[in-house]
Amino acid sequence: RVTSIADRLNVEFALIHKERKKANEVDRMVLVGDVKDRVAILVDDMADTCGTICHAADKLMSAGATKVYAILTHGIFSGPALSRINNAAFEAVVVTNTIPQEEKMKHCPKIQFIDISMILAEAIRRTHNGESVSYLFSHVPL
């Protein structure tokens, strides 16, 4: 996923390898690549309590990143998530609106959302009509 995004944006990439000893608990995080004097963008499918993603942001800043952003598909943001984000090094945490974020945004100004309703509607329409959904990966409707 990282190489695909980096290739489409024509940028270099680094990644954070995380090891878990058990579910929902990161044992170790290793940064692979150089982020010194660069803007870092963390990409993940979801964030719940945000312990992992905030830890990753700290690791990136410690490695010399100038700014850190997060882009997430699903922002669950339960428990201590909002206070963790507020206290973390993020410039912004951008999520889709698969989960309503208005209330959470009131308590955490770093959270921003992207409306994906048109993309989901087009995917449903294409599925219903037997058309290609993979077409949407390279042709995003506005």
TrEMBL record:
- Catalytic reaction annotation: D-ribose 5-phosphate + ATP = 5-phospho-alpha-D-ribose 1-diphosphate + AMP + H(+)
Q: What is this protein called?
A: ribose-phosphate diphosphokinase
The similarity annotation says: Belongs to the ribose-phosphate pyrophosphokinase family.
Recorded hits in Pfam families, A to Z, give:
Pribosyl_synth
Instruction: List the InterPro entries.
Output: PRTase-like, PRTase_dom, Rib-P_diPkinase
> Which keywords does this Swiss-Prot/TrEMBL entry list?
ATP-binding, Kinase, Magnesium, Metal-binding, Nucleotide biosynthesis, Nucleotide-binding, Transferase
Q: Where is the signal peptide?
A: none
* GO molecular function annotations of the record: ATP binding; kinase activity; magnesium ion binding; ribose phosphate diphosphokinase activity
A Gene Ontology BP annotation from the UniProt entry: 5-phosphoribose 1-diphosphate biosynthetic process
Enzyme Commission identifier(s): 2.7.6.1
Q: Name the CDD domains on file.
A: PRTases_typeI (cd06223)
Q: Which pathway features in its UniProt record?
A: Metabolic intermediate biosynthesis; 5-phospho-alpha-D-ribose 1-diphosphate biosynthesis; 5-phospho-alpha-D-ribose 1-diphosphate from D-ribose 5-phosphate (route I): step 1/1
Q: Which domain of life is it from?
A: Eukaryota
Q: Name one GO cellular component term.
A: cytoplasm
Q: Name the gene for this chain.
A: Prps2
Where do the coiled-coil regions begin and end? none
